[in-house]
Amino acid sequence: MGVLFDECAEHRVATLVHLDRPFDIDAGTRTHYTLPQLATLVREAAGWLAAAGAGPGDRVAIVKDNHWDYDLLACAAVRVGAVPAQLSAHLSGEALGTLLARLGPALLVTTAQVLERGRKEGTDLSAAARATLVLDGAVPGTLGMDDVRGHTAPGPHRRHDDEPLVINHTSGTTGVPKLVVHSTRTIIGKLARFESVRLPRIGLRRSDILVNASAFAHGRTFCWTASALCMGPAEISIITTQDPNLADPVLRAHPPTVLEALPASFVRFQPLTGGLDNPFRRVRMVISTYDAMHPPTVRAYLRASRHRRPVWVEGWGQTETGPLTFRFHTRQSVHKASGGAGTRNLGRPVPVKTRLRVVDADTLRSLPRGRAGLVLARTAACALGYVGEEDRWSAKRHGTWWNTGDIGARNRDGSIELLDREVDRTPQLSCLRTEDLLEGRLPQALECVVLAELGRDPLPVVVTADGALDQARWKEAVRDLPPLREPVALTWDQVPRTGTGKVRRGELLHRLTGRTDTYGSGRWT
């Protein structure tokens, strides 16, 4: 990864890159790059990191606003032999302080705004690092860009395929995220290489315009950076915002043929699918990860495409494992889902690469098909461990099997039906299935969340544009469902979320009820 951009430039990969806003690491206002220009920027960044004291074996923590230059900085750190740790600035100051204390980085690369927010929240984020490099200003006791700019980068440092390559954190829906360590073998050799195959229909083509609207601090985009550049599409567009009004100009200027985004971004951009001149009319493939998508959203994007047979590729996995299953949605399949079925069927395990078992939570014995239990996975792409939480990692390993912490059931055809996160489950119903049903029945809903609370009926939360809910429609929507409490209607911004847009269910439950106790044990979160 340290020489990825150099190698693409040497092989004359002609991909053009477009940004919705300039990089935070580039002092200019440029929003268009060739790969040779990006290769130069990565080499310059490697010089900055080396000048700031980062070298082989060191950890370099990166905390900044959401942008693809997270991965450029990570590649620069890899180039000098360091191990980049990409931390989302969306995290609270307390959570960032905890993660930085676990990391003990030689260098923290951040912004003045992030440091100031940490101080306001009672955390000195620079305290855990040997040195701090601030990208956008002068902060007493830290290095600024004028202190490191212009230094020549050392030659690329090679490392063994099984040594740590990058550290990414989990989404953190249930508390402080976990720091996951991947090696070159696991995240590049097993994950990115798998995506770098030109498969019929779903493989990336050199003529494609690829758009990614993601959370660039997370491991998915580090892997995506490797595979996308190796495939050499005609254009790549980067979208850093979830505001549809800001994303629309970039989408229209470079209409995607392949679109990947966060589940929350798909929901926020969905109003753009409505017009005849919608920016998704050329899309032939949509890729979603992180969380299952609700059927109405999938239908909206597939309808918006004028391609003869657009396909939605849904991957399920975790930061620790990468994708474990894939499922493909078409216009026909999601039309059938309109009768009440959801998109919680995750598909089958990735052939040859992944095995899945459904087991009893107490005995870990395999359960027959159709019975709900914990989902265990076995994959050669499994990470090396958690930073500072070795016991937690060991508790989730059962020999060669990894405990996903998800509750699911194996269907007759071998596919996996996802029911709930173990910590969020309730005996009355599947929260996830119920959310799918409610979203299909409530056209005004941007999102539905069903919260499990110990000893009480589940609490439904309906997210709408204005925070209002038609009570007559609600009563009709729940007429045949198990008992639910009276719904709470909120706007999108009133719901606590992770950097990837996932709902922080425990925090939302506490805000609404003052309680956090659920039926789940939380032992495998």
Verbal overview:
The chain has 525 residues and is α/β, with parallel strands linked by helices. The protein has 16 helices and 25 strands. It has a nine-stranded mixed sheet with strand order 2-1-11-10-12-13-14-15-16. Helix 1 packs antiparallel against helix 2, helix 4 crosses helix 5 and helix 7 (184-195) packs across helix 8. The radius of gyration is 23 Å and the shape is globular. 51% of the residues are buried.
Uncertain regions: pLDDT < 50 for 5+ in a row?
A: none
Oligomer description: single chain
Classify the secondary structure makeup into a structural class. Answer: alpha/beta
Largest beta sheet, briefly?
9 strands, mixed
Q: How far apart are the first and last residues' alpha carbons, in Å?
A: 30 Å
Shape: globular
Mean pLDDT: 94
Helical residues, percent: 25-40%
Radius of gyration: 23 Å
List key phrases describing it.
single chain, 525 residues, alpha/beta, 9-stranded mixed sheet, globular, 29% helix
SSE blueprint:
Blueprint: H1 4-10, E1 16-19, E2 32-34, H2 35-51, E3 59-64, H3 69-79, E4 83-88, H4 93-103, E5 107-110, H5 112-120, E6 131-134, E7 143-144, H6 145-148, E8 164-169, E9 179-183, H7 184-195, E10 209-213, H8 219-231, E11 235-238, H9 244-253, E12 258-261, H10 263-269, E13 285-288, H11 295-304, E14 311-318, E15 322-329, H12 331-336, E16 348-349, E17 354-359, E18 373-379, E19 385-386, H13 390-396, E20 397-398, E21 401-410, E22 416-421, H14 431-441, E23 445-451, E24 459-464, H15 471-477, E25 488-490, H16 505-513
Helix pairs in contact: 1-2, 2-3, 4-5, 7-8
